[in-house]
Amino acid sequence: MANLNFNILHIIEESKSTGERYLHPTLSTFEAIALQFNILIDGVYYEVVIEKSNDYIWIALDFGKPNPRDEHLTNIITGEKRENEREITEAELIDQFFCLYDYETTFFYISNIKKKNVILTIFKEKLKLNFIFKTIQKTKEEFIELLNKVSEISFTEVEHLFSHNSKKRQALKDLTGVDAPKEFTINALYDKSNSLVEFLKELFNEKENNSLKDLIIRGLDESSFEIIFNNDTFNKKIELKSTKDENGKFISNEIKDSLLMELK
Is 0.85 topped by the overall pTM? Predict the structure, then answer.
């Protein structure tokens, strides 16, 4: 079984008509897009397959580049080599990512957040519409309220939290045998539910006082979805476990069905 994480975003359509400028896309927004097409973006070749329903639009993308390419293929067991017959204009579409947009909740789920601009480019070219993605913004208080279980806390301490007269600094000195450094990073992992609300509040306060940087808090909400507070931005994720085929690729329909089951 392999893990596949979906980030949850809002997608906003920039309206061309008079009235409200920014709108959530609807079923009619995607009427003109084809169910299958290929597109080249920044030297990467994407093969796009789309499924439309009254409730959602599902987008599966296989992609790859024609280079780099080795002149030979190597047998990883024997070490023997043979000529690579793939032409320099051909690509192996071994990479994948998937997207689902739910019309009712207006949430956009994407399995590779780094590829969100690819989706925006595709929509602009195929639909002649401009879209923007927005992360799900929550206040620190709302984040703590949603947090049911803490799994990881990491931050870089600059000053004050481990000040010269604090018990935390003395504990660090006792642990390391030397005085606390000017700057250091802590990464704490947890494997069960923890009552850390007051500590989290203190971390947020120290972050606002510029005593901490790179603060990341990971945990689970009551639905066991991963939630992350990172650099003052709240993100929510869904983690799926799925099999791969004999070529090491995810099976699109299995991923789609698993995601839809999580959303029920």
Answer: no
